[in-house]
């Protein structure tokens, strides 16, 4: 999944861990459905944060949650 997006192999675990933390919180809060399908919008937010220099998985997850909740879906799709 992440390799297809051009991610470096060393960052796959970091993105995966940050996504798991953020998605778990957002599922429990009801912001995203409780399914096994990857939320593309959340994943894109995490990847952008990583590309801008954030390498701590907890900060990545927390910033992604904040941005995810602040962005209305219509604006994120456009």
Structure in a nutshell:
This protein is mostly helical. The chain has helices at residues 9-29, 40-51, 57-70, 73-77. Helices cover 67% and strands 0% of the residues.
Helix content: 55-70%
Share of residues in strands: under 5%
Element-level helix/strand string = HHHH
Largest sheet: none
What is the tally of helical segments? Answer: 4
Which shape, going by the Cα principal axes?
A: globular
Distance between the termini: 22 Å
Instruction: Tell me, rounded to a whole number, the average pLDDT.
Output: 86
What is the structural class?
Answer: mainly alpha
Q: Runs with pLDDT <50, length 5+?
A: 74-78
What does this structure look like?
- The chain has helices at residues 9-29, 40-51, 57-70, 73-77.
- Helix 1 (9-29) crosses helix 2 and helix 1 crosses helix 3.
- It is an all-alpha fold and 78 residues long.
- It is globular and about 30 Å long.
- The longest helix has 21 residues, at 9-29.
- The relative contact order is 0.18.
- Helices cover 67% and strands 0% of the residues.
- The protein starts with 8 loop residues before the first helix and ends with a helix.
Task: Present the secondary structure layout.
Blueprint: H1 9-29, H2 40-51, H3 57-70, H4 73-77
Q: Descriptors for this entry?
A:
78 residues, mainly alpha
